[in-house]
Amino acid sequence: MNRILPRTRILTILAIAAWAAWPACAVDAANQTATVTPIQLNSALPYQISVQPYEFAGDLPTLHSYNAAEYDGKWVVFAGRTNGLHGFDQVPSPSTFPPESQNGEVWVIDPVANQSWHRALDGADGGLTAAELRSLTPTNTQFYQRGDQLYVTGGYGVLADLGGGNTINGTFNTLSAVNLPGIIDWVVNGNGTAKQQIRQITDPLFTVTGGAMYEMDGRTHLVFGQNFVGNYGTGTNGTYTQQVRSFDIVDDGVALSIANASSSPADPNYRRRDLNVVPVIRPDGVGGLEKGLVALSGVFTTTDGAWTVPVEIDALGNPSMADPNDPNTFKQGFNGYHSAKLGLYSEGWGEMHEILFGGISLQYLDTATQMVETDNFLPFINDITALVVDSNGDYSQHRIGEFPEFYHVDDMDVSRRLRFGANAEFFLAEGIETYENGVIKLDHLTEPTVLGYIYGGIQSNSPNTFDFTTFTPIPGAVTSASNRIFTVLYTPVPEPGTWLLLVLGLAGIISRGRRARR
């Protein structure tokens, strides 16, 4: 059973009754499970999360699936792609990932000062060899930041240029260490070369794209993903790692290496990529806290479906998954694809809250009918959800909002609403208190607060852009990379008892006023 949040029990009695009356939502057998856990609508969570457009005065690239870091109040973004979602040609083709759409620039963005700077990695300013340049400009890498260093592994892109428009595509086997203050100085002031701020090593261990990478207690964990070789097309597959690869990054600022590499046993339940892997805080059972990771949903099963059961990863990198056949196991239906996200933890309640912003999903809320719909073709969505893990380790998912309305007029002069969040990143605002792993301290948020910003990602003017039953594009449906910034605002919701006291107090004031007029 999924436990309701203790401080909001009064306001959710009716919601609980309605939720309990729903049958488990049926989905296609191609997915990991034939049912998913019903999402809770209108849940009385102790906060509201709203996403609002942010007007940025400077230049911004259209960009998705990029590397991201924050240093000295500035964002550093590079690699990724400047066009929309890859095509679905029936045969493998370079046109699905055109080389000219690989981002070859490093951007530095100051969201508060409304300034941006950018510099190309190629040429004399970059100082890079052709092979180094290609390894620094792929898509769907894995990365994390440690202090003033950004570490990046793998990614998919052009391995070799054969000339005449012919390329060999695949997954890189590189680990890059990027010195953030140095690369910012290079971009903003033009000092030195990019190569002076980047160190690289290679190892088959790093040959991963579409996974995630985090550090826990000084040890790096490369979670799931795949090694895709060759050009992309319908029916092609990479070799999924199906494991967590762990190692120590040894870095003295000059020499870069790894040590103590190990891997969890390959498990077909972990055949996942393009997923949300999130750092979490949880009670350790003896009055303290422990760190971990949770891998949420992702694609694809061997029958081209979505994964639904989360995978928990402990601080040592050991993955485990609840029994998909157990009716009490949580099965995720919303926000299954890599999207912008943020984590909040309350020590007072012992609860982890992961906020997932849009993206691609097995399910979505039809706002016209207020009904939850299932689409096995995995549409783009605007839904924002909170995935909550309570102090007992029980999961629940709550729909808490959606992206603002923006529209695109297609080639047929039809106005279509844009959908956001896929392959976007969240940037934390300055001054927000977090745990060591980046999870926000929820108990410290006592007033309306800007938590940060969402930038870029894929935007789509249609839930689906391709008809897989006929292998033809849907007329008028297009995707593109976004250069929009959204502000993420947190607003605490007073406890039910507080509201009750306010109402009773107001009633008393009105009553006294009436008596005084008699």
Structural class: mainly beta
Gap from first CA to last CA: 55 Å
**Strands, count:** 41
| Weakly predicted, low-confidence segments | 1-23, 498-507, 509-518
Sheet with most strands: 6 strands, mixed
C-alpha Rg (nearest Å): 23 Å
User: Which percent range describes the beta-strand content?
Assistant: 35-45%
Total helical elements: 4
**Overall mean pLDDT:** 90
| Shape call | globular
Q: Tell me the strand order in the biggest sheet.
A: 3-30-29-26-25-35
Helical proportion, percent range: under 10%
Plain-language structure description:
With 518 residues, this protein is mainly β. It contains 4 helices and 41 strands. The strands form 13 sheets. The protein has a 6-stranded mixed sheet with strand order 3-30-29-26-25-35. Strand 7 and strand 8 (115-120) form a beta hairpin. The longest helix is centred in the C-terminal third of the chain and has 22 residues, at 496-517. The chain is globular, with a radius of gyration of 23 Å.
Quick summary:
This protein has 518 residues and is mainly beta. The protein is 9% helix and 40% strand. The strands form 13 sheets. Strands 3-30-29-26-25-35 form a six-stranded mixed sheet. It has a four-stranded antiparallel sheet with strand order 4-41-36-34, with no helix packed on it. The chain has a four-stranded antiparallel sheet with strand order 5-6-7-8, with helices on one face.
Question: SSE layout and pairings?
Answer:
Blueprint: H1 13-21, E1 25-26, E2 35-36, E3 40-41, E4 47-54, E5 67-71, E6 74-78, E7 105-110, E8 115-120, H2 130-135, E9 142-146, E10 149-153, E11 156-163, E12 166-171, E13 174-179, H3 180-189, E14 198-202, E15 212-216, E16 219-223, E17 226-227, E18 239-240, E19 244-251, E20 256-263, E21 276-283, E22 289-296, E23 311-313, E24 319-321, E25 340-346, E26 351-360, E27 363-366, E28 371-374, E29 380-389, E30 395-402, E31 407-409, E32 415-417, E33 419-422, E34 425-428, E35 440-441, E36 449-455, E37 458-460, E38 466-467, E39 472-473, E40 479-481, E41 485-492, H4 496-517
Parallel strand pairs: 3-30, 25-35
Antiparallel strand pairs: 1-2, 4-41, 5-6, 6-7, 7-8, 9-10, 10-13, 11-12, 13-14, 15-16, 16-19, 17-18, 19-20, 21-22, 22-23, 23-24, 25-26, 26-29, 27-28, 29-30, 31-32, 33-37, 34-36, 36-41, 37-40, 38-39
